[in-house]
Amino acid sequence: MCIDIVDYSHEYDNSFYGATNLQDVLNTQSQVINKLIDSFRKDKSSSFKGQFVLANEPSARLVMEEYENELSGWATEIVVEVPNDVTNC
Prior knowledge:
Helix content is 24%, strand content 19%. The protein contains 1 helix and 5 strands; from the N terminus they run E-H-E-E-E-E. The chain starts with a strand and ends in an 8-residue tail after the last strand.
């Protein structure tokens, strides 16, 4: 899960921008979760190259105010396989 607290302004001025930072939270957390998924797909890290393999096709699902503390963002299930090349027991 990539979630953050939504800040509700107590000084609402009847404008879209004065209401909450929900759009900023959703946009930022979407970028975070997409970069995480992309890092497993492209295997960019030279130190972990070939050690982690993405075993599913993850898709993000919206998490919006499902919890008591005003958290919103995105959730996904990522299945990672680690190749076992141990030949000696």
